Amino acid sequence: GALASGVGYVVWYAALRYLSATRAATVQLSVPVLAALGGVVLLSEQLSFRLVLSALFILGGVFVVVVTRERSVAANQPFPVTAAPESPSAD
């Protein structure tokens, strides 16, 4: 228990450096799904239809928020500003 939690926190805080606050909060919502899947894999707990369906809904929601957020941030980025082309001078 303590070792798994410790490793989990080390990985989380290492990844946190690369995430915005919104993305980190959203990704954090996937923790119950990961814990449930860990129980299935490591503790031989039963994989039920309800678990699969709820995991798909949760991970789908996380995916939608992360992808939508990336697109909205990219759409709000200003276009690069360049100097206006010089007009030919009449000498």
Quick structural overview:
By secondary structure, the chain is an all-alpha fold.
Radius of gyration: 23 Å
Mean pLDDT: 82
How much strand content do the residues show?
A: under 5%
Structural class: mainly alpha
| Uncertain ranges | none
Alpha-carbon distance between the two ends: 82 Å
Shape: elongated
The total of helices stands at: 4
Order of helices and strands: HHHH
Q: Could you give the count of β-strands?
A: 0
Main sheet characteristics: none
Oligomeric category: single chain
Helical percentage: 55-70%
Description:
With 91 residues, this protein is mostly helical. The chain has a domain at 20-75. It has helices at 2-16, 21-28, 31-43, 49-75. The model has no long low-confidence stretch (mean pLDDT 82).
Outline the fold blueprint.
Elements: H1 2-16, H2 21-28, H3 31-43, H4 49-75
